[in-house]
Amino acid sequence: IVYSVGLGMNMMDLMDPSLAEKHNLYLATELSHPNNYSQRINTGIEYIYDKMFIVRAGYESNHDMLSWSAGVGSKLKIGERYFEFNYSFSDTELFDGVHRLSLDIGY
What is the pTM of this model? Predict the structure, then answer.
């Protein structure tokens, strides 16, 4: 059993709501308490410019093999379809880090 609670919000709502049309700055934090391991705190931040360009970073505390991660992404609309490409790097104890790629296609 894992007990978790998380919070997240667009920080632009606090800073300058008039900029929220082109800029989004999301901050999220999760506290988890597994019954078979010590507590963890995960936090992340994501900046989106013009609903097209994305920069992300995060940190996982008290984890056996993970710590920080960072990534970039891009969203495009071509015709009736949406395409999203994402890349991230996670620092891990094994493999000298993990690279991830994704391509999402939607309507």
Answer: 0.85
